[in-house]
Write a structure and sequence with these properties.
The chain is built from four helices and ten strands; from the N terminus they run H-H-E-E-E-E-E-H-H-E-E-E-E-E. The protein is an alpha+beta fold. A hairpin with a 3-residue loop joins strand 2 and strand 3. The C terminus is likely disordered. This is DUF3686 domain-containing protein.
């Protein structure tokens, strides 16, 4: 046996073992990184990839499925623009999302590490957004997790619930149009549709 060939074989074997070991460590590091990624962060990545609008289907806990683009992500909520009704917007607590369907390439892109945002939207809660709807006197359809829908105007929004004045869709919130009131816990909200035409500044 020639010694130079013997040492070449040893070097090749050692290099192969190092490559295999590095691949295992890289795989473990990636698994660890992915274990720390939240749904909110993945939705933020999709929101920043504006070209995905229309290719995402959101399945809500009430059984509704909407094809929509993500227009914003807050602390504990997501805003969507439905493809089929451009004049309306949808607001959903993250707990109201049952599943998100999207092409495989977008699924992989959404799992990439994102730059730390640290912006104001990171601190805007679902209740804060609802208090803006109170100020606007916006007409809404509140879709509950058990499958029912309530229409009306949000009168107040607390830390974990909202007060809804019930009235017909599209009607202005006046005392003679109100048919009742409901306190709705945020945990019972699957999603809310806001009709842009009903917004009064």
């Amino acid at each position: 046996m020639r010694w130079d060939r013997f040492f070449d074989d040893l070097e090749d074997q050692l290099a192969s073992e190092w490559e295999a070991e590095r691949a295992v460590l890289d795989t473990e590091a990636e698994r660890l990184r992915l274990s720390r990624v939240s749904l909110r962060e993945r939705l933020q990545m999709l929101a920043h990839q504006g070209e995905t609008a229309g290719s995402i289907s959101v399945e809500f806990t009430d059984g509704t499925v909407l094809t929509a683009g993500i227009t914003g992500v807050g602390c504990d909520w997501v805003a969507l623009q439905p493809v089929e009704r451009r004049s309306s917007a949808v607001l959903a607590p993250l707990g109201g999302i049952g599943a998100v369907g999207l092409p495989h390439a977008e699924l992989l892109r959404s799992a990439r590490p994102a730059a730390a945002a640290g912006g104001l939207s990171d601190r805007i809660t679902f209740g804060f957004v609802l208090r803006d709807l109170v100020r606007r006197r916006a007409g809404v359809s509140v879709h509950l997790t058990q499958g029912r829908m309530l229409t009306g105007t949000v009168d107040r929004a607390g830390v974990d619930h909202l007060d809804l004045a019930l009235h017909e869709p599209g009607a202005v919130r006046r005392s003679d149009a109100v048919t009742g009131f409901r306190i709705v816990p945020f945990a019972g909200v699957s999603w809310i549709r806001l009709d842009g035409a009903s917004v009064h500044g």
